[in-house]
Predict the 3D structure of the following.
Amino acid sequence: MRMLAFSKRNDLEVLRDPLNLFFGLGFPLVLLLLLTAIQANVPVALFEIERLAPGIAVFGLSFMTLFSATLVARDRSSAFLQRLYTTPLTAGAFILGYIVPLLPVCLAQSAVCYGAAALLGLRVTVHVAAAVLFTIPIAALFLSLGLLCGSVFTDKQVGGICGALLTNLTAWLSGVWFDLALVGGAFQKIAERLPFLHAVELERAVLRGDLTGALPHLGWVAGYAAAAAAGAVWAFLRQMRKQ
Amino acid sequence: MEAIKTAGLTKKYGALTAVDGLDLTVEQGELMALLGVNGAGKTTTIRLLTGLARPTSGDAWLLGKSVVTDSAAVKKVIALSPQETAVAPNLTVMENLRLMAGIHGLAKSEAKARTDALCGSFGLDEAADRRAGKLSGGWQRRLSIAMALVGGPRILFLDEPTLGLDVLARGELWDMIRALKGHITVVLTTHYMEEAEALSDRVAIMRGGRLLLTGAPGEIMARTGADRFDEAFVRVVQGGAV
């Protein structure tokens, strides 16, 4: 119950910020519409809706790192966490309270993205619902990164690191905007060893109903999500002790 | 039983000793002000007593519970209103109060009764549906203290509760703090001598992490031979006749 109260507050803090709504929902939808319009005039295989929608869904989730990191960093800097550290709320409740409530928000964000894609021509099958569900491990990755960054950086640093760096890394290294094979070399090798490309490929495979093909990508994403979660727990507990 | 008792409470940060062998007792229902110039160790003392920092040596007992060995039990009987206003900015006043009720595990009916009562006694009714981040400094400070009271603490720590407030807002907050006297134990830190004199049953004056003197404001004035309390404070801190 204590954790639920804290979770509810975290949801409200994120959802009531109009900037969050714009970047979390509006911006990915604008990109989806824009690239679909380009595709209608200059057909590019990469921007076909079946390939584009999963990429935009993952790109949209990368903003959740910014939102959760900003929330944690602001709580630390405003003494709000100091107040809560003197209550009976446990360390586990804090960590779950920052991650769990934003998972449904991620699912809703993904559902809206695929819903918009459906209006733009994506065939609605059971695989769309599966693709929404498979955003859970991806969301866990981005939210854990948010808790990690929010525990380590100040709210101003978080804006630069999560808002600019991470979203750009996700965009460039995920194969959403261009085919990584076109660049090749070290760039492609690095992209293949990071989770962003695998997150997009996981979604693409699930959307076309290829669960076998999705498994290796799920492994990459789940592995990175577990590592990010472990790092987040360590960083949060460390700053909690320092407080 | 004493509400707070410390024995040799010490906190060191590297070479710096922020609190040095503090022996202090606060009786139940008493309002004690911790006074001292910057760096005296007031805020560190509050951090030690609320479990935010661990003592390097010594111990403190709050209603008989040790901050070293039983901090979970201590957290059930205390509340802190930090120096900076600590509210959830995108939540309304009422949502902030209900958040604290949920975190303290209050049942729904009890939470409603307590948050409604606090809204009334702190004059927050008219702002109940306004977002906390949009309130003025004075209103945020009221809310911050009300939030600390939702869990029904037996010991309340107020760290510089009126810092930065105008005269009117400060006066209103003083009335609210006065109303708590006798019901719960209050420890407050302040730089305003008139605040300490107006509110406290006793004050504890610190310098360089050490406790110099405790006593009622009137007693301290008598002991130092000062006409005003701020003058008495200066004499104590500067090591004059006590």
